Amino acid sequence: MKAMQIPHYGPASDLTLVDVPIPTVGDDQVLIQIGAAGVNPVDTYVRSGTNNYTATFPHTPGNDGAGTIVKVGANVSSLSIGQRVYFSRNLTGSSAEFALALPDFVFPLPDNISFTDGACLGIPYTTAHRALFGRAHAQTGDKVLIHGATGAVGLATVQLALAAGLEVVASAGTQEGAELLEGQGVAQVIMHNQADHLAPFQSLDTGFDVIIEMLANINLDQDLKALKKGGRVAVVGNRGTIEINPRELMARDAAIVGVALANTSPAQLKEIAQDLYYQLAAGALNPVIRKTYALTELPNAHEDILKPGALGNLVIDLEV
Ligand code: NAP
């Protein structure tokens, strides 16, 4: 099969196309023919060995994907050959024609969702769901800031929050991003690169019940001042350190919670996947794909995912 691989930690330009055997399915595994693979920032951290991520080599990048199950191990009863699925984790890398996965991370894909859309679900929508509901405990009527809403996780959070009847304020870094968010139905868009963009929300009356934060090392200090009493900041993204004043938390009985998809239990993943399935099938969730790439264009996708000016998901289309 064709796969993109890198022999050592290195830049995206070191990724090359290789021909390798199709992996052999173990008793507790499934083999998936990949229709499309999602590209997420974490793929670049693993490839380059940054942000505490490690890899074994040769490394085929990619956690996310969607496709068809072509083999099931002897002990697997929850999934069957021919089933359309998406996955949030796999054993061999999704930048390839086939990947092995454990059933706990593989979920049914509704018939109305294409493989390219399905490739956007694993990390972005699962993380968004867990951040919003599992960690920040958002409830109908809550006022929520999605701080960094133009990327894959941000847009998923916007769609889940609107579908749940939350009052959504969302931030963008570019005018195009702001227009994208307005098109998603966000009534109030703010610009996260403008100084004091949170000032109008920094009172107990105008603040947020929940902030879903995509760049905590830049924003956390100001976020705390924009919480209502009992407010929660869920840290999804962070690329450095920041000084905060804990008194802001005390004054509001507020909380900062961390979110790591890797800590989500199989039971929680299943529950989230069931809710996503229902909402996807009903048309309430619609992944936004900014760009699709051929498998050999993976280096471009790894470079693009870290550039400012996000406008949705980046996807490798294995069917072209
Ligand atoms: P992405 O598609 O690259 O989007 C990045 C987002 O960050 C964009 O919306 C971008 O907005 C925004 N951003 C840039 N500067 C910002 C600022 N000063 N304040 C607020 N937001 C800012 O990435 P993603 O897939 O959505 O992931 C977002 C972050 O969460 C990444 O750091 C990723 O590693 C992390 N993540 C964590 C988990 C977890 O389990 N904790 C899971 C998935 C992702 P503009 O481009 O419009 O400026």
Automatic annotation (TrEMBL):
CDD domains for the chain = zeta_crystallin
Keyword set, alphabetical order:
NADP
InterPro entries of this UniProt entry? Answer: ADH-like_C (IPR013149), ADH-like_N (IPR013154), ER (IPR020843), GroES-like_sf (IPR011032), NAD(P)-bd_dom_sf (IPR036291), Zinc-ADH_QOR/CCCR (IPR051603)
UniProt keyword annotation of NADP present: yes
Q: Which GO terms describe its molecular function?
A: mRNA 3'-UTR binding; NADPH binding; quinone reductase (NADPH) activity
Which Pfam families does UniProt cross-reference here? Answer: ADH_N (PF08240), ADH_zinc_N (PF00107)
Q: Where is the Enoyl reductase (ER) domain?
A: 10-316
Query: Is the NADP keyword given for this protein?
Result: yes
Q: Which domain of life is it from?
A: Bacteria
GO CC list:
cytosol
Q: Which Gene3D superfamilies match?
A: Medium-chain alcohol dehydrogenases, catalytic domain, NAD(P)-binding Rossmann-like Domain
Q: Per its UniProt record, what PANTHER family does this chain match?
A: QUINONE OXIDOREDUCTASE
Tell me the protein's name.
NADPH:quinone reductase
